[in-house]
Predict the 3D structure of the following.
Amino acid sequence: MNTNISKNNISSIVTKEPKVTKKKLQDYGWAYLMIAPTIIGLIILNIWPIFYTLNLSFHQNGDFGSSGQFVGLANYKRLLSDPNVGSATLNTFKYTLVSVPICIILSLLIAVLLNTKIKGKTIYRTIYFLPVIAAPAAIAMVWKWLFNADFGLINYLLSLVGIHGPNWITSPDTALISLIIIGIWSGIGYNMVIFLAGLQDIPKTFYEAADIDGAGPFSKFFNITIPLISPTMFFVVMTSIISSLQVFDYIYMLWGTDTIGLEYTQSLVFLFYKNSFLMNDKGYGSAIAMFLLVIILIITVIQLKLQKKWVHYQ
Amino acid sequence: MKRNFKKLIAIALSTAAMITVLSGCGSETTSDAPKKSDTSTKQPVTLTYAIWDKNQEPGMKAIADAFTQENPNIKVKVEVTPWNQYWTKLEAAATGGELPDVFWMHVNNFLKYQSNGLLMDITDRLKDSKDVDLNNFPEGLVDLYTADEKKYAIPKDYDTIALWYNKTLFDQANIPYPDDTWDWNKLLEVAQKLTDPSKGIYGFSAPQIDQEGYWNFIYQNGGYVISEDRKKSGYDQEATKEAIQFYADLSLKYKVSPTIQQFADTSSNQYFESGKTAMCLAGSWMISEFGANDYVKQNCDLTVIPHGKEKASIYNGLGNAVSAKTKHPEEAWKFLEFMGTKEANMIQGQKGAAIPAYKGCESAWIDFNKGFNVKAYSDMLEYGVIYQNSKTAPKWSESQKTYMTKILSGQVSVEDGCNQLAKEMNGFLDSEK
Amino acid sequence: MNRKKRSNHIIIHIILIIGAIGMLLPLFWMLKTSLVSLAESTKIPPTFIPQEFMWSNYSDVINLLPFGKFYINTLLMILFRVLGSVFFSAMAAYAFARIKFPGRNLLFMIVLIQLMVPSQIFIIPQYMLASKLGWLNSIKALIMPGIVSAFGTFLMRQFFMNIPDELEEAAILDGCNRWQIFSKIMLPLTKSGMVSLAIFTALFAWKDLMWPLVVNMSIDKMPLSAGLASLQGQYSTNYPQLMAGSVIAILPMLIIFIVFQKQFIEGIATTGSKN
């Protein structure tokens, strides 16, 4: 049994459980103080709206602040038997499972390359960051043109090698693939920045020692870079999964609300938006949002528990 | 030094944040308005007028200025919020009790706002008004903004659907331009002549759009979308199904129109503006975009929409409404009243904003748009069919989209698709009781 | 050794250039569209080089919209959101990462939950809050949603967790209190984290479209993205003008990134001396 004896704390010797010392209380005090602004801010700005939405999900026909009639779990029951929700959930998962790993691998690769001593680093980094700051309208226009079945660049290039390109956006086989490609492309810039920050944090000494031992680039990458970047990797994996499960913007920009092909790409957030804002059914839309929240919560908790297995903090 | 400065900022920021967050008590939004509305005293008042079209801002400002000239104590601030955000913003404002004093209302949202008591009931004021007579406006529009026999908005403008055509393509094929004698058979005949797959040119354009598309055909064939009493869907009527069949055949059977898949990549307007379709249907609101497009200006014109068994063109119009909770009901009403006069509508037409709803004022608008035969739009008003609406319209219009998509892509037959749509629609309509 | 390094570098460049072309495509498209006429912008098949260079799109859009006000509003919005979120997030992140206080895990979940819901659900409740505070149609309203950051707290926590324990223990033995440890020792070690957070906060603020349009009324209280949105009509949009405006709007973000980027490079020089 460890007892902490500090000068002013003689009473702690007497108490049976010397776990909470004055020092620890001071620590807790600092901790609560330091998290206070963020926690209070988040509760007011974000947590309360989540409860507001939860409340809406138990009602029907609410408008303008009045929740409407209380219907208990009716919206949730409807949700579980709605084929739209089923297909949206499937689309959302497929999208996440494919785009997240590919995007992360590519971003890490680019970040590693841009962390070496090559010329023109700043220019490359800026170029790779550009998709993130380009106007969404421009991005939508570009991809619409790239995927255009009759005049688009991709099908044109395919025709040069004798392949008749598909109807990317409207065909059941390729609609989701188009969305995935756009998702990967638009996520690289973000993840690259975070990986670069993580790479900076790896002390040079590790690499220098490895060089002395004669290790090659691959060995250094797998034995030094990967483990030491795991905290950053954890962050990127978590945030990528969370945001991919909420994919919406590009679906709305390219498929709108009435284009054929929507059923192959519509996501849960899209259904939420459609019901809450277009079909005037805030109760059902809110239920969908809560449903998604539960899914994401479960996945996040699993990831947090798993982090002990593979994330290595210094 | 740097550290201490950082610390200072830190402390200042956190204290400021804490204070503002904790203060919470509503400080009044600054406004130069008196606390209670005064009907007799001439206190200066500023009204807020919300609109969603930046192109029409000059026109609305001109009307506001003319109003202030006659009522020097009342100023009007025109606020533009783009269409995509307008309704979210209006809803947030309504929820927070901060609706603008006067605002544009669209048929799609009218019933939602009206049934929640957010619009001022202007029935009595209209009866007593010397300046506004509802007989000067198209009956369908007046009805659109009437609920339970009470009036909630004054029509502002109207739009109809016309047939646009590419003169150059017609000239090349030596075919006379469309006119008011055209019917469905003529339309199909010419569309077939002008369709040229080798050049990727289509004779006509039949996308999955209701107001600018298949609704017109339904009414031209004597069918209907929703019954007059708004209780039953018209999609299971033979006349309606016939019309939908004709419309779907244009792209699926006769191949004179791009398919729904192609429209997903390229919009109907884009096809027309690139000279890839010889004809298309377009609402009067497209005039500003077509007019700014050099290709369309030089090569295209318009005429009235072809008729079927009957003449029909879908028309719609915006209304001006006053918030039920405005702090200045008398002044807001005065402004609304002014906007219902001939004078205000003439200004609207002169500035080319939109076709004024006031009968007779369309001449000003026609003069403004000299490049095209825009008279065709106003000519169609006499056989215009008002935009279809009901309380659950947001829901059944989604069903409409779903089934029409299936029909136009050939996934489902017209017969089956329409019957299923009618069933779903009736389900929603029944719930409105 | 040198030749191997050179050929390695060439391979790296080739890979990067191929990727860069893909990245540059939308920017190229923005530029091209901003320089064509309305007719040419909607043409199918599209053109690559403008048939006629319409520089007037730029002068038109500058005359149409108060860009000066947009820049100022955007800068203020970004500045205060960055200051607030970096500072508050770093503080909270340090506590979450390095102090084992009761309720730590639960409170961290509360932080994370904000990331797991569609952002549209915040709009109306936050509007009501802004309305109660009397902040409608103001810069304060623009800053409000971004003054604290769940994303930032999570990001900074990862960086704080990655600092070796020995540094802290040494400081505790020296008699420093938590605040001193945080501000004098730990915070400077997370420089690259703070810089990325600053970049992201600036980015999210700059991109925020729906919130400014809902909470503010007059066009001169709009930041860049929201101000440009007024060019989008119900049925049609003048894309050349919109693109011209968007090109003008990118400049602040580009500058912020390039400037902060240099911080990264400086970071390499100082990080080595961590131990």
